[in-house]
């Protein structure tokens, strides 16, 4: 048998694992418009599906994390009711499954969805319910299985992280797999939320931290050394602690060595990292350097609407930039599955029964 071509159609057939994807950053443009009509939201820059999708992409291409985050005002505004949350969560699962994703951890900030009168618990119930609706629909329509779990996020500029951490723990047996903090990094260090992280550690709960995207090594240092994160959300700026000589040999600083030695996963999001200015281009993205140095790199979408992307498209961009083959994509996928906030035996089962056989077919 010959190997499948490394094109978008073939990559879509490959089983994928997604660890860093924002629910409010992946809403279908048509859904944004319809939900806005339902609640009378007048703030959309366009009510044409194609134009609105293009606006999100163009507005996100700012080179600034702070400006990039402003695009979320519109998606969050239309996600304030039970029906809206449930619909967006269901469609998220359907869209990921159509792209070949077999396991995903989708994150969102419940505190941003209270304007319609819902409580934090109701927001969680509806969102997780939507994920469950989507998983059942995929199984019924295609016979395939996808596992989607919820990463509960607190906003780093707010003061509710301990409350949101407690919310995550309450729902951990109902589909919540871990905790995260997100939002602008500069001026809002991870250690500001130390109480939440210490609580989670006492509760034996997993957490990742957005760090090393718009802000450099101090953010990563705090996330790792002070807060004890399991994974780094982005972490692309770990390159600031690596010097690559003219001979191609790399010298790692203490922090970079520690992150690599401890196998702390990096939730890299190539297209988004370019949009926010963390990398100048896909070709200049440090993904390949980090992969060659055997950091635990993973491929992620971050925000599928704002970046007009999918897991398959992110993988294809890396193939085109760095010449990766099927074995490389399989390694990145296994890296992600190993790093998932999922039971060990279930991680192994997905690797052995789904991921490896799925790539074996494509390799030929």
List keywords for this structure.
364 residues, alpha/beta, TIM Barrel, 4-stranded parallel beta sheet
Strand order of the largest sheet: 1-2-3-4
CATH superfamily: Metal-dependent hydrolases
**Individual helix count:** 16
Output the helix-strand order: HEHHHHHEHEHEHEHEEEHEHHEHHH
Strand content: 5-15%
Topology of helices and strands:
Blueprint: H1 8-13, E1 16-22, H2 29-39, H3 49-60, H4 65-70, H5 72-77, H6 82-98, E2 101-108, H7 120-142, E3 147-155, H8 161-170, E4 176-182, H9 194-202, E5 208-211, H10 217-226, E6 231-234, E7 242-244, E8 250-252, H11 254-261, E9 266-268, H12 270-275, H13 287-292, E10 297-299, H14 311-322, H15 326-339, H16 344-363
Parallel strand pairs: 1-2, 2-3, 3-4, 5-6, 6-9, 9-10
Antiparallel strand pairs: 7-8
Summarize the structure.
Its EC number is 3.5.4.4. With 364 residues, the protein is α/β, with parallel strands linked by helices.
